[in-house]
Amino acid sequence: MNRDGDLQAETACGYQAGAQCVLKLLYPEKVAELKAAAPTITFARNRVASPEAEAVNRYVGSLITIARSLRKAVMEDGYPLIIDCGEHHATVLPCNNASVISPLCDDVPHLYDRDKNRYRTEDEYISFMTELYGARGSRAHTSTWKKDHKNFVVDLHLRNKNKKECFFRAMLAQKVIRSYAVIVQMVTGANPSSLVLFEYENALDVASDSVKKELVSVKFRANGLVVSYPIHRKGLKILREYVQFRDWYLDDGVCKYLFFTDIGSSGERSKPTPLRGDFQTRLNSQLKGKLIDPSIKTISATKARKYKSIVLKSIGIPVSDAAKALNHSENMNGIAYSHPSGGDMRGQLSKFWGSVRAYASEVKITDGDAGHLKRTAVGHCDDFGDPLSKEEVPPIEPDCKKQFGCLYCEHYVCHADDDDIHKLFSLRYVIEAVRAVSPEFGKADELFQGLCVWIEFILKEIQRKYPQLEEKISVYRHKVYDLGLLTPYWESRLSRYEEIGVIL
């Protein structure tokens, strides 16, 4: 529901589908009539763009650094633990409150000297507490403070000596497990629901010298469908690091699943159970503002999958292979996994418009004698019969027997007069008509969108070079788009397309 208490269209659509199922069970003979009486609720899915490469690199880079540093500290180091967070360092202490000291948080336990980055000696602690209480106007409790410091020293020794029995290390271990789970999720492109079902034995085989490098998950909601997720060389290194940590932490313990938790909701150690699907959200709440800078954007599983899909296709991997790598259909990949980031789109558009402007400025436009030029359906040609592309791979290959590719040809010439202006507007009109109604819209749009833009730039270039033609350009724009008066050639072409259903 939204803030006004109204149902969102997507939620209402789900409710309607459920109601239709109930009606089908109760009134099978009338269900078609009942469904027809109510319009189907539709909604537009929110197509989130792929994240920026910089945001992905910053998030993953910080998380890998933190995971590795935490892993080493939990296994080997004594308190206080110094953690490399990538963009800063943090100190982790074995206590419930103010357990993390970093540039991102200010709370520091009284027993710890932040300036010297170590615990205070007994004398330093008593001096600090005396000064603190004196500022408050309270009396000193020297004997109590001595006892507190002595107990703390004993506890600290035990926590550093018996690492696997230390509850605070176990809490940190949960962060290590979740951090590596997120990293593996990013590397493989797995959904959280699939990742939490990865099994330890399978991971152990992958981490060894086996040939097949794929983590496997079983989708119970898809009738036990077995899906695999390839893990590349760098991902394999991450997996091996985690398996080593897992073996150390569990020791003689057993857990079927690769990623797990052994801290119950009560905060006490418990039998290992699979991670919950919201493990990344939980990890973020624990690390943001302490070990991870709040300005670092979280890359969710969905965004990671979108990013992986975009990167695969950007390096020439076919859509079918990109979809296979993410274990979904080509149709799903096209609908939800083909939207590049804002930065990528801005870069692509900048490159596109730059090439269009450069091309338009180089087009041969003349108002002189055109007697030596060959007249064509889109203008004129100075070497008809010998097409030569302006680009290495043009959207439409120039061909003297066809007219759509002429504007991509080195020999194309536009004569700045009524005739060629009319031809350009007629060509654009036909192209837009084809794009609008073609069943193969994606293919038609890919072929002709750039051509439409280039025509407009050529017309603008004519207007810039010959300002006296501005009125004529407006006149022919009106004739073609408002009155539908095309040149005979393009009028004939449009009629043919209409007869065959405008299928190219």
CA-atom Rg in angstroms: 34 Å
Fraction in beta strands: 5-15%
Fraction in helix: 40-55%
Record the strand order, biggest sheet: 10-13-12-11
- Mean pLDDT, to the nearest integer, reads 78
Please work out how many helical segments DSSP would assign. 18
Low-confidence stretches: 219-223, 311-317
Class from secondary-structure proportions: alpha+beta
Q: Tell me the total number of β-strands.
A: 13
Shape: elongated
First and last CA, distance: 45 Å
The biggest sheet amounts to: 4 strands, mixed
Structure explained in plain terms:
With 504 residues, this protein is an alpha+beta fold. 52% of the residues lie in helices and 10% in strands. The protein contains 18 helices and 13 strands. The protein has helices at residues 9-26, 31-37, 53-76, 122-136, 142-161, 167-188, 192-195, 200-207, 233-250, 279-287, 301-314, 319-325, 330-336, 342-362, 418-437, 441-465, 470-481, 488-499; strands at residues 81-84, 89-92, 100-101, 112-113, 118-119, 214-219, 225-230, 260-263, 269-274, 364-366, 374-376, 379-381, 412-415. It has a 4-stranded mixed β-sheet. A 3-stranded antiparallel β-sheet has the order 1-2-3. Strands 4-5 form a two-stranded antiparallel ribbon. A hairpin with a 5-residue loop joins strand 8 and strand 9 (269-274). The radius of gyration is 34 Å and the shape is elongated. The two termini are 45 Å apart.
Topology:
Layout: H1 9-26, H2 31-37, H3 53-76, E1 81-84, E2 89-92, E3 100-101, E4 112-113, E5 118-119, H4 122-136, H5 142-161, H6 167-188, H7 192-195, H8 200-207, E6 214-219, E7 225-230, H9 233-250, E8 260-263, E9 269-274, H10 279-287, H11 301-314, H12 319-325, H13 330-336, H14 342-362, E10 364-366, E11 374-376, E12 379-381, E13 412-415, H15 418-437, H16 441-465, H17 470-481, H18 488-499
